[in-house]
Amino acid sequence: MRQLIAGNWKMHGLGAEAAALALLIKAGSIRAGAAGLACELLVCPPFTQISNVAALLAGTAVGVGGQDCHATAQGAHTGDIGAPMLRDAGAGWVILGHSERRQNHRETDALVHAKVLAAVAAGLIPIVCVGETEAERVSGQQNDVVGGQLAGSLPDGFAGVVAYEPVWAIGTGKTATEDDVAAMHGFIRQTLRRLLGDVGGTMRILYGGSVRPANAVSLLAVAEVGGALIGGASLKAEDFLAIARGARAA
Ligand code: 13P
User: Fold this and answer.
1) What is the pTM of this model?
2) Residue 26 above 90 pLDDT?
């Protein structure tokens, strides 16, 4: 399976900026197409830009995703967005359980589990994020934390994507070492096989946390790394595409 290089734009992008970024990524991916980009590309703009960006990227190989959805399809939930609405706006993917949602909105594994079911029912591919805090890593609990998040967040028959994003590496400029990434991705693979059987043996496990053009090639070369989930560097088309050029066909 090709590696997936996904940009999480977080809460960035007014109309003009989002359109300019989408068009630069589109142009870059088309140019790279001749040389054969080894990876699949995805951008996840804020809700308000999904339909604009999806229209600009229609007919290209760049996918579009949301950054969250509600656990039910519709209803009296002021300010929330249902998975069918994301699909209707042109998204094919959705990031769920990002640590910023888990921290800022107190999302639990049980809620993420319900959101995954809602996303799948709407025809979206979920990207479920897991990762430990710095304190949890310092005290050696990272496997327990990540193992618990996987067991609690992934429903039976899950067939989406998992993203390992150590909280201490997000937006900090600190990245996990290649050895730490290899150890954690190996542990996640083993856990996915135990929880999900054969499908857990092949699903993509992305790494996220301060991925930059300068560290992408080495991180993407680590065993069991199926791509990257990129925050800050995904807001510059040049950096996002440089990271994509570092991907390999796994
Ligand atoms: P940064 O790449 O800015 O560290 O963010 C990572 C992230 O949270 C992607 O979801």
Assistant:
1) 0.97
2) yes
